[in-house]
Flagellar biosynthetic protein FlhB
Amino acid sequence: MRKFKKPILSYNLQFFADGPSGEKTEKPTSRKREKAREEGQVVKSIEVNTAFLLIALFAAINWIIPSISSNIIHFMNDIYLKFNVINNNNFSIDFVTKLMIESLWLILRLVAPIFLIAVLLGLGLNFLQVGFKITPKALKPKFSKLNPIQGFKKIFSLRSLFELVKSLLKISLILAIVYSTIRGKEKTLLVLYDMSLNQIIVWTGSLAIEIGIKVGVFFIFVALADYIYQKLKHEKELKMTKQEIKDEHKMTEGNPEIKSKIRQKMREASMRRMMQELPKADVIITNPTHFAVAIQYNAEISSAPLVIAKGTDFVAAKIREKATENGIEIIENKPLARTLYYTVDIGDAIPEELYQAVAEVLAFVYSLKQTNNREA
């Protein structure tokens, strides 16, 4: 028979117990999710916004580029005409100021539709990702974020390194897309000086739109992967320990010990009220020891007898004791006592099917009282 050898290393099993600092293995509760949302912690991928914004903006530019090129050419022709007729007398600050205002107004008219599309699309994409909810807590300044030590930790953390590698990889792939798009157009690039201004603008714009849409399509795949990653990361951050779930349950549902004490206090108060009403009873119907039901009949209060007190075991003994103190008759009727206890609540009238049985008991009690009064 082999003997059990004492291990060289001893282990404290308490380190494996689940406690306040235990492993977060439980799914987050709805309250935890709501609290995180109030603090601005939601699943959101910037790459999704980037991808759809790129495609939408370059599609919009492609749609309005004829108008843009026409306006630019018209503006440039107008400037050339003005400079042809200009001389030293009319070249002044007012002329330059007017020219600058016209240039700025042209830029605003060309950029405004694109800017409006970008703003509306950005708001729409954010709404689709996180919905609409005002979160004042997320807007409150957190002075802990100004801690330089924590800042350096974030800069040189594993997460920052991952983001750097991801950014470098995206830039490399974008450059590859740009290179592959331009590569087949070297001949056109070499003859741009032979083209008119209108042709150069149209060709350059078409090239930019082609590159933008290709980059946008590439970003859709990046956005899909990033959204899945952000969702998994968000779920992992929201996970809770078993102790956290217990603590939250206590906060929302109430501490079981406190609730038990409240119920006990309510029972005690109900017991006191019941004992205060007991002297009004006409008869106590018992089992004889396990059940006790106090019946009161007053035609001015109710057309049927009422159950004003009832109880089992200890409470039943208290009812009998109180009845004896107040000279109330105690009648043993096992089936009637059990039926009244289980079918009639305190303060309710007895059902019609028990009228006959209760009437016989009351008649017997009244006859005993009359007999006792005559003897007295």
The chain has two domains: 39-132+147-239, 279-375. The domain at 279-375 is CATH 3.40.1690.10 (name from scop). Strands lie at 283-286, 291-296, 306-312, 329-332.
